[in-house]
Structures are given as C-alpha cells and as structure tokens.
C-alpha cells in the first residue's frame, strides 16, 4: 500500500443549526481520487526524491524494498 497509495482526504463535518459541536474534525481518506471533487490531495510532492507522502527518500535505501 505504501508504494501504490496516493492519499486524498476530506473533512466530512457539517454544521447543524442549533446543535453546538466542539469537534469539527471528521476526516475521511481515500487511496486515490475516486472520492470525488470534495477530496483533496493530502501531500504535495515537489521533489524527485520524495514519496507519495511528501517524505524525502534515498533511492539507494528505499523504505520498502521491492
């Protein structure tokens, strides 16, 4: 899953009138963009030597060797 998953997430919290809520974090994630337009990419990859989670990787010492 580490090598194939591209994280997408959305906060599914919706305010309900008249009901006070202190916990507004109701996150759901998907391993791809199949969740639809409400889901956004979790991590931005800006470098060649980063994994799908934005962490730096050493191509000579992979986290999960194949």
Topology overview:
Elements: E1 8-11, E2 27-30, E3 40-41
Antiparallel strand pairs: 1-2, 1-3
What does this protein structure show overall?
The protein is 0% helix and 15% strand. The model has no long low-confidence stretch (mean pLDDT 86). The protein has no helices and three strands. The chain is mostly beta strands. It has one domain (1-66). The protein has strands at 8-11, 27-30, 40-41. The protein has a three-stranded antiparallel β-sheet, with no helix packed on it.
Q: Please compute the radius of gyration using only Cα atoms.
A: 16 Å
Our measurement of the CA-to-CA distance between the termini, rounded to an integer number of angstroms, reads 12 Å
Task: Kindly report the average pLDDT value.
Answer: 86
Fraction of residues in β-strands = 15-25%
H/E topology pattern: EEE
Helix content bin: under 10%
How many distinct beta strands? 3
Overall 3D form: elongated
Tell me the major beta sheet.
Answer: 3 strands, antiparallel
Which class best fits the helix and strand makeup?
Answer: mainly beta
Read across the widest sheet, the strand sequence of neighbours is: 2-1-3
Residue windows where pLDDT falls under 50 for at least 5 positions? none
Question: Could you give a short description of this structure?
Answer:
The chain has 66 residues and is mainly beta.
Short key terms for the protein model shown above:
mainly beta, elongated, 3 strands, three-stranded antiparallel beta sheet, 66 residues
